[in-house]
UniProtKB/TrEMBL annotation:
Gene3D superfamilies recorded: NAD(P)-binding Rossmann-like Domain (3.40.50.720), UDP-galactose 4-epimerase, domain 1 (3.90.25.10)
Enzyme Commission number, as recorded: 4.2.1.45
Leading EC class: lyase
Lineage: Bacteria, Pseudomonadati, Pseudomonadota, Betaproteobacteria, Burkholderiales
Identification of the protein by name: CDP-glucose 4,6-dehydratase
Alphabetical UniProt keywords: Lyase
InterPro entries: CDP_4_6_deHydtase (IPR013445), NAD(P)-bd_dom (IPR016040), NAD(P)-bd_dom_sf (IPR036291)
Gene source species: Undibacterium hunanense
Domain NAD(P)-binding intervals: 23-329
NCBIfam families cross-referenced by the UniProt entry: CDP_4_6_dhtase
Length: 370
């Protein structure tokens, strides 16, 4: 019988973030609100730039993020609004999460998607040009930047970029803009530039339209049937705290290593089908009806997608903490307990505490990459 080898993996250093000036775009979104809350909890001085939240309810409001950070409403497609936010924040570190982030919405509004995801990124990078006080800028793109070959083999960072739908294409194009600004301007001024390609994110507090778990919660809470249009699509699912933790650790590393690699995949060790995630969510939520489509309809969406995040694990010691069943369980418990009257603050604090106190060792068989 082989011995099990245990490896310790990185977690964010709260002491590093205390007093750091941070500009966070997209702070009114689901992921951005979680991130703003975490940064504020660690004592960072956070300025946010985003459009007002769209959904009701939304995590930005229920967490009262505007009382925890300096919140600015503005459109990243407008350079003047971006520059004003950068001037106000005087950031040491920038996290760019603002985006049009939905595939199906990108088919309905392709120009708005390209403007937001490409020119919005360019506007922010231009506002950072000539500001050597900005030490790190981490730009969040997506796992969908790769030219999809409909293969189960996971994509490494060196895979070809592409994009069938406007969302995927816009994110791949934004990475070319990112590389150009890094090579032409920002590397010379000492600003580290990183692109974080994160897998599909789940977690409590997401009420967006056309997202799997929010759609499930809405249907089951109201006694409706959840209709799943593509049950066999495969994605690299992860709890929202996984990529946020990785963003923090990447920024900490780049602070003292400004020439660090540009692109980083952030995802779980494997991928799972929509059907598997829905079945786990149903078991955790405890009620509800599901109808899985037997024929594919609607605009093109990738069927198979998996990420190779071994570079992150092997070079920086950043690895997932929660397996898929744990990620889904925490997500559905968040929604269920929120409906039962627990505050969003208490629920997010509970998940963050559980996440940070999770076993800091990942068991591996000898011969597997650490």
């Amino acid at each position: 019988m082989q011995n099990i080898v245990q490896h310790s993996y990185a977690i964010p250093d709260a002491g590093f973030w205390r007093g750091k000036r941070v500009l966070l775009t997209g702070h009114t979104g689901f992921k951005g609100a979680w991130f703003a809350n975490w940064l504020a909890h660690m004592g960072a001085i956070v300025h946010g730039l985003a459009l007002p939240p769209e959904s009701r309810p939304n995590l930005f409001d229920v967490l009262e993020i505007d009382k925890k950070i300096h919140s600015h409403f503005g459109d990243i497609r407008q350079f003047d609004a971006v520059k004003l936010a950068v001037d106000a924040a005087r950031p040491d570190i920038v996290f760019h999460l603002a985006a049009q982030a939905l595939v199906r919405a990108s088919y309905k509004q392709p120009l708005a998607t390209f403007e937001t995801n490409i020119m919005g990124t360019a506007n922010l990078l231009e506002a950072l040009r000539g500001r050597p006080d900005v030490k790190v800028a981490l730009m969040v793109t997506t796992d969908k930047v790769y030219r999809n070959r409909e293969q189960l083999a996971p994509y490494p960072e060196t895979a070809e970029l592409g994009g069938h739908d406007p969302y995927s294409a816009s994110k791949a194009a934004s990475e070319l803009v990112l590389a150009s600004y890094r090579d032409s301007f920002l590397q010379e001024q000492g600003t580290a530039i990183l692109a974080a390609r994160a897998g599909n994110v789940i977690g409590g507090g997401d009420w967006s339209e056309d997202r799997l778990l929010p759609d499930a919660v809405r249907a089951w809470r109201n006694g409706d049937t959840l209709h799943i249009r593509r049950p066999d699509s495969v994605r690299p699912w992860q709890h929202v705290l996984e990529p946020l933790s990785a963003y923090l650790c990447l920024a900490q590393h780049a602070w003292s290593n400004p020439s660090t690699s540009l692109a980083w995949n952030i995802g779980p060790d494997g991928a799972a089908s929509v059907r598997e995630v829905v079945q786990l969510a149903h078991a955790a939520y405890g009620k509800g009806k599901i109808e899985f489509a037997t024929e594919i309809s609607g605009p093109h969406e990738a069927g198979l997608l998996a990420l190779d995040a071994s570079k992150l694990r092997q070079t920086l010691g950043i690895a997932p903490r929660w397996k898929l069943d744990e990620a889904v369980e925490h997500s559905m418990c968040w929604y269920r307990d929120f409906e039962n009257g627990m505050s969003a603050d208490a629920l997010c604090a509970r998940d963050m505490d559980d996440y940070l106190h999770a076993a800091q060792f990942v068991s591996q068989q000898p011969g597997q990459p650490a």
